[in-house]
Amino acid sequence: PILLTQRGHGAGVLVHPTQWNEIVELLASYQDILITKDRAQEAQSDPSVMRPISDLRTLLESDGLLDE
């Protein structure tokens, strides 16, 4: 990365596209992990949020999000 400055202050960062894409993918993975942990904690504290997998499949199929 290259730090771009204007009048001695940071103004931007220049990053190679490949490195940028790797950073974006890594961030997305971390976000997925945090969401998973949040959902697991939610399920432990309130089991009523849990739904049978068959209900979820039906819902996803009806929304056209799951093809089987």
From TrEMBL:
Quote the protein name from its UniProt record: Prevent host death protein, Phd antitoxin
Q: What is the lineage of its organism?
A: unclassified sequences, metagenomes, ecological metagenomes
